[in-house]
Amino acid sequence: MLKKFLYMALLGAVMTSCSENLMDEINKDESNPPASSVNAKFQITDAIVGTGYSTWGGDYAWYVASFTEQIFGTGNNQLMKAELRMRSETAASSTYNNEWNATYGNLMNIKQIIEKCEEGGVNSGQLDLKGMAQVLWTLSFEALTDLHGDIPYSEALGGSRQPKLDSQESIYTDLLKRIDDAIANIKAAEAAGMNNAAGQDLLYGGNLTKWKGFAYAVKARLLLNTLYRNQSVLPDVLAAANEALSAGFDGAELTIFNGVDCDNSWTAYNWSRYYSGACGTVAELMAERNDPRYDVYACDLFGTGIEYAPAGDDVLAKSTETVGFPTWLENGAATLHLLSKSELYFIVAEAKARLGQDASAELAEAVTASFEDYALSDGGMIGFDPSSAADYIASIGSASLAEIMVQKYIAQARDEQIQTYNDIRRCKALGQEFITLQNPNNTSGGQNQWPLRLPYGNSDVVSNPNVSAAFGSGNEAGNYLFTENVWLFGGSR
To answer: Which of 47, 250, 404, 433 has a Cα-to-Cα distance from 127 of 20 to 30 A?
Structure first.
């Protein structure tokens, strides 16, 4: 009887196993293979676009542009509220929820690429794809921690349903290690002649020398961001930047837009809402310098006679289709920068100036690159001539640190406002104020209304107790944004 029972049990187990295996085969969708079996080169395309279009070119940039006063928020809605520094908009966890989720979603894709390039993965040994993904990982988490401070990092991306908040200090330590790993992998892949991404790489078509330059440029910026915390970092900044230049870095930008059926994010947003105007803080700096870029930046495109609005102007913020705006917002084919050529030269110029070295050549290169960028982004609307840069540079005078930072501010009004936000906060932490912000709403009733960081996304505020505790509740929710700097720029967390 016992033998019969054991036989029947064993037969049942075998039959169950066979049935489960058979069902697995029957239920397999051959036309939609699992993500784990997809070649990572097809994922790198989405990773690049997501990093440029959403993280560095979406909601974060649109709102931050008002805080840096490089764009005037108008249209009697969200950006108007940001322009008037209404806490209901500035400090709401819902304001940046889309970009918060999109960035972490893109990072999950980037993580999969890296894992597939590990031993045993679909792309095992493809160090070029791995290096590219590591650069994009660094860029994406750089934006998140620069903007929010302490964020889910080590336990994020599938590590925990309620990941802890890692300190910005620990995150930056890891990002600097990861960008070095990326550089090492890209160099090894370059030496081996790899080109596994090819046309799926929308930045450089698999050109690893260009990726190497990009990685070094990212490293230079990361290092410069730590200046308040490490006063001796400038030689390392220069070393990384010079490696980028030696590799021929001439910008990392998305050039995939045509202005017909594929528009860059700024133009798509502008045509949808017309919430972005030219701001007097930039326009007046240009006018003071007789800057030819003024006509591109402050263009009376609505024909109202109002080329720009003073920062924080209550009446014009509530107006619709009234304030002039940069011509590139009408050019859907304008590129999107992940890191521009001009920014790298400004990084070198600032580092040299702070070290007491002559930065004239680098300032000239940076401004020339900005003029070229303004001309291309204008798309021929006013026929801006970039050759006017030579006379303009001659009129600037010496390459003082103050003028370098003003010129960088003007150049980055194009589409690099997130880094301007970092620069303003970094310089303030160092006790320096090269850009005088003009918005009267930055303070109210003796209290600061200018956000020192951005609020977390609502999806985590309501579901992750670690994020919820940091964000606060009730009347205290989000108030820390106006009192606590991020660690990089003087805060304790």
So the answer is: 250
Q: In this model, does residue 209 exceed pLDDT 70?
A: yes
The model's pTM is 0.93
Strand stretches in 143-207, DSSP E: 151-152, 165-166
Q: Give 309's strand partners.
A: 279
HSE value, Cβ hemisphere, 13 Å, CA-based, for 299: 18
Tell me the CA end-to-end span of the chain in Å, nearest whole number.
Answer: 70
Largest CA distance in the chain: 104
**Residues 416 and 337: beta-carbon distance below 8 Å:** yes
pLDDT in tens, 237-271: 999 999 999 999 999 999 999 999 999 999 999 99
Residue of 280, 153, 226, 233 whose CA lies nearest to 425: 226
Task: Give the residues across from 443 on adjacent strands.
Answer: 448
C-alpha–C-alpha distance, residues 394 and 401, integer Å: 17
pLDDT band at 33 (very low <50, low <70, confident <90, very high): low
- Assign 268 to helix, strand or coil: helix
Q: How far apart are CA 234 and CA 224, in angstroms?
A: 7
- Helix, strand, coil in percent for the chain, rounding step 5: 60, 5, 40
Cα–Cα distance between 113 and 128 in angstroms, integer? 11
Phi, psi of 253 (to 5 degrees): -145, 150
Render pLDDT for 309-349 as a digit per residue (tens, 0 to 9).
999 999 999 999 999 999 999 999 999 999 999 999 999 99
**How far is 60 from 98, CA to CA, in rounded Å?**
10
Distance of CA 43 to CAs 119, 184, 366, 390, Å?
A: 18, 22, 33, 42
DSSP 305-325: S---B-TT-HHHHT-SS-S-B
